[in-house]
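Open question from group meeting: does this chain pack into something compact, or does most of it stay loose? Before anyone orders reagents, we agreed to write out a predicted structure and look at it together. Recording both the input and the output here so the notebook holds the full record.
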Amino acid sequence: MSTRKKSLYTGKAKRAAQILFYKRHAKPGVKGWELRKALGNDYPKVLEVLDDYLKPLDMEVKTVFEEEKTPQKPTVEQLDKARFFVVLRDVASKDKLMGWRIDDLAGLAITISYIISKKGQANRKDVEKLLGEKMPGWKVGLNIDRYIRHGYLTQDEGGQLFLDWRTQAEVDQKKLIELLLSAEKQEAGALEPLQEEQTEPSSEQD
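Structure tokens returned:
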């Protein structure tokens, strides 16, 4: 890349950072078409440059395709409809900044996976019942409200819970489900020997 071109992209990257960090809507993030309007047709390249600048700060530019599954090679039209965020790259850093306990994060993982299993929405009472099996009852409502407040969940007037922008931006939903399924298999495998011992007939003679 020539010095002139590098200087051009650096200037555009600064402009992109200003746009992404400045919250202009009720919902964080910026649509691709907005970035195209502000930065030009080469805005995907500008975001790549910005992402490189953000790495030392342990941050990254995240692309969320809200209306469809994440395509391997997104088209210009798909990028224009996508939403772009700046998020923390390291999950441990997020946890430290939020000051959450491990059981709070586990509750969030369970809630997200449950909503995914229910095709994107679940009744709050059902979620509360599920979390009540994993944590003290007094924490359940407080934690769900916290997940909503931090943008991981949203709730409608009918008490239905949905995944919100932060889950879409920060959580690898496919990987989360794979990890939970793996943990369930390991737990089931550990219980099998115990079940065999309980059902094994006694060898003692009368």
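Observations to bring back to the group:
The first strand starts at residue 30 and ends at 31.
The longest helix spans residues 173-199.
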